[in-house]
Amino acid sequence: MLIGYMRVSSESDRQSTNLQRDALLAVGVDTRHLFEDHASGAKDDRAGLAKVLEFVHPGDVLVVWKLDRLGRSLSHLLEIVNTLKHKQVAFRSLTEGMDTTTPSGELLFHVFGALAQYERALIQERIVAGLTAARRRGRIGGRPQAITGEKLDAIIAVLNGGMSKAAVCRNFGVKRTTLIDTLTRVGWPASYKDQ
């Protein structure tokens, strides 16, 4: 059975699924088997997409007018098509001519998968290179430290003088977890942290 899925980015009158609907009906999708969403492709919670993925059965073919109507990114598209494959459901995109029921369509899908994996590896490589370059320039990632410099020196001095952590938090206006994290970061003795 052919199952159709359509999506437009908003519910405004300017955007309509008519073009997609006509294309899907022209290839034999029954009007009773059309699912649609009026939502951005970036949204995870698309009700129509969830319904179509629940509706399909082994042997069905999910048909879309264009690849970008289904997935918000290449990796998301591959995730959906892999879900379909596990359900023994084929996938077909009319505009790109992709059809996983044919050997060439299956090959194209695998090429897309390899490209997505390559893209993820490149992104990871760029992140690591960027962090390394930042460290060489003296920059350390993460949130700025809440307690530093003179304030930290004053807190350690009053803790050495016997003030409780609760009193330090009240007097210096810091949260208990922030105080404990800071003491851990500066290597404060473990025996004191547990008091």
TrEMBL record:
Residues 1-138 form the Resolvase/invertase-type recombinase catalytic domain. The lineage of its organism: Bacteria, Pseudomonadati, Pseudomonadota, Betaproteobacteria, Nitrosomonadales. Transmembrane segments: none annotated. CDD domains: SR_ResInv. Keywords: DNA integration, DNA recombination, DNA-binding. SMART domains: Resolvase. This is DNA invertase Pin-like site-specific DNA recombinase. Pfam families: Resolvase. It comes from the Bacteria. Belongs to the site-specific recombinase resolvase family.
